[in-house]
Amino acid sequence: MGGKASGDYDGIGLRKSVIWRDSSPSLFRKGACMTQTTAPSTTLDDGRAGATEKTFLGHPIGLYVLFFTELWERFNFYGMRALLIFYMTKTFLFKDGFASLSYGAYNGLVYATPLIGGMLADRLLGYRRAIIMGGILMALGMFGLALPGFGVIPQGLVSFYVALGLIICGNGFFKPNISTMVGTLYKQGDPRRDGAFTIFYMGINVGAFLGPLLCGFIGEAKGYHWAFGLAGCGMVLGLICFVVFRRVIGDKGMPPRVEALREPSVIGIPKEWTLYLVVLLAVPVAAFLVSKPEFVEKLAAPAIGGLFLLYVVWEAMRSSPVDRGGIFVILILSLFSVMFWACFEQAGSSLNLFADRHVNRTIFGWQIPAEVFQAVNAGFIVLLAPIFAWLWVRLGKAGLEPSSPMKFVLSLFQMSLGFMALVVAAKQATGGVKASLLLLIIAYFFHTTGELCLSPVGLSMVTKMAPVRLAGLLMGLWFLCTAFAHIVAGALASKTATWGFEQMFRVIVYSSATAGAVLLILSPIVKKWERAKLAQHAATK
Length: 541
Hints:
Shape: globular
Number of helices: 17
Structural class: mainly alpha
Radius of gyration: 23 Å
Strand content: under 5%
Distance between the termini: 26 Å
Number of strands: 5
Strand order of the largest sheet: 1-2-3
Helix content: over 70%
Largest sheet: 3 strands, antiparallel
Oligomer: single chain
């Protein structure tokens, strides 16, 4: 994602994540209120200074505009995603295997397109236009899923896949650029920056919690079309918040060169309109790829991923020894992250189906919709993330904080523990007996603690280990590994059709534990490379 400073990646939350460090103390200062601060806190990244800025709780008002915009967008995104596997299997009667593959291909593309959207915003469109265009495309996609249920447009696979294509392309423009805009509110080195991403992160997870909760209940009571419509309204609310209060953000997120938008492209029309045309043409391509998940799994993803990995290795071999070590740290940990996310992302596919069919969801005579359990992870994140933030700081001060590879090891072992609980649940669910709901909650608990050991740590690790000249490329590697993991997750979930849930869960227990053990063996050399790169940073300060 060319052109971004590495620090701007700290808050990119494609996995609902942010780099958790000590929060800005001004956020919780007694008596904090709306104030005005002077020029130093309004110095822009290019060195220009403003006169005053309005703040609330020590942060620019623009942060809260982005907070609520992102909250409603995540409400929209995760509300829809909680329903998707059921919509496929119950409305279109897809078999579990094909539905899981399509679900994985959809999410893989969702996590891959932000690389392109971020690059185009950096070089031509600007963050502001990219966010608005992305939000419009996502809202259109969501209403495209809802309208057939109201009889406005025909119900069919064409409208279904085109709607998913719109969401994929929209997310590619919206997601990376709103996160980057948070960074533009603060100059490099501003101590409030980490606290700002903490606040922004809470918006992500509040939306990710409320979306499945409300859309799940509405979908169960009124039908999926009502739930998709509600999710689409959430996206519209986010867009309204961003557009109406855009003046609060000032001139942040404008195109790098406004005149470049009006310059003619190779086809003779302004570059801005050429870009919009290309995006419209990309929608059917994305729709086609989701409809052909076997192609994505067996050809597209391995080919693109393999070429990207070869290029990264080539760049590593032509780098200095210290930089080469830093690149290998990123490469190794990114590859191990594929295993973690492939297991973690069973949540929306195989775990959703297991909860729907085999878990006793009745409490006090009332049955909880299976879709609602997609909110459990976000709920645990909100509760546990501050504890983990405090824990890492406390261990760091005592000289006991685990290294990045050791945190990854812990995450993989915790993933294994979570699926152990699911193996027990699958054993219970035999002969028509329903499994205990508590076991499902325990699994989500360990998955969340594992996520908190890996996701924010991984983002931080990339920004620390990457040479400046390769910062965007290596962050791209991290996100492409996440995208690839979703495709692997879909392929793995599809095996439940032949293996059954118990065997599939057992395979994940063994696989994640084995991956953790292998990384534990590799960790001494990975830590050696990591320490050398950190020492280089310390020497250049």
